[in-house]
Amino acid sequence: MHLLLLNGPNLNLLGKREPGIYGQASLATIEEQLRGEAKTEGAVLDCFQSNFEGALIERVHQAMGSTQGILINAGAYTHTSIALRDALLGVSIPYVELHLSNTHARESFRHRSYFADQAIGVVSGFGAMSYSLALKGLISYLRAEA
Ligand code: DQA
User: Fold this and answer.
1) What is the pLDDT of residue 17?
2) CA 87, CA 54: separation in Å to the nearest integer?
3) Adjacent-strand bridge partners of 4
4) Is 19 helix (H, G, I), strand (E, B) or coil?
5) Catalytic annotation on 2?
6) Is residue 52 a contact partner of residue 76, using CB atoms and an 8 Å limit?
7) How many CB atoms lie within 10 A of CB 13?
8) Where are the alpha helices (DSSP H) in the chain?
9) At what angle do helices 82-91 and 53-62 cross, to 10 degrees?
10) Would you call 52 exposed, middle or buried from its count of C-beta atoms within 10 A (0-12, 13-18, 19+)?
11) With 27 labelled, which of 7, 21, 85, 134 sits at a CA distance of 20 to 30 A?
């Protein structure tokens, strides 16, 4: 099972960026832990972060044919990017949307997601643990489908 973790803009700053909201863990730490958790489940996890919408879209395109599921924290693109939504739907790869913070408990502009209605599920508000919960959900969904 090949899976892809996508992180959008500013998530490269995790650990330094608003730690009261996003926590102390760096993205490298989260990615390393998640790769280990995926391996334990017999899956291979690729990780990709970009601050550029087009780069994220191109990585989604590349996943076609080789990746069974996607975990995505699109950062602020969650609330703005129809293009990234179209890319995810265009490759027909099931995905889980995730957020460190509970976006529904924050500013109203964070309440809208362009991905949530087409996602397998959404995990939001559990800090770095959101990544693990999303991974578990994705793997269990893919196993049930197989
Ligand atoms: C975020 C929530 C978004 O609203 C914000 O723009 C982010 C991070 C989260 O993980 O909580 O960059 O996706």
Assistant:
1) 95
2) 10
3) 46, 70
4) helix
5) no
6) no
7) 13
8) 19-22, 27-40, 53-62, 82-91, 129-145
9) 0
10) exposed
11) 85
Known catalytic residue at 114:
no
Size (the chain), residues: 146
Nearest residue CA, atom 7 of ligand 1? Answer: 75
86: left (phi over 0), alpha (psi -120 to 50) or beta: alpha
DSSP SS3 for 102: coil
Beta bridge partners, 3, equal 45, 69
Categorize the per-residue pLDDT at 1 as very low, low, confident or very high, splitting at 50, 70 and 90.
very high
- Inter-axis angle of helices 27-40 and 129-145, nearest 10: 30
The model's pTM is 0.97
Q: What one-character DSSP code corresponds to residue 54? A: H
Q: Whose CA is nearest to atom 12 of ligand 1?
A: 75
CB 48 within 8 A of CB 59: yes
Decide whether any atom of ligand 1 lies within 6 Å of the 134 Cβ: no
- Ligand 1 atom nearest 76 alpha carbon: 6
Closest Cα to atom 8 of ligand 1: 75
56-95 confidence digits (pLDDT tens): 999 999 999 999 999 999 999 999 999 999 999 999 999 9
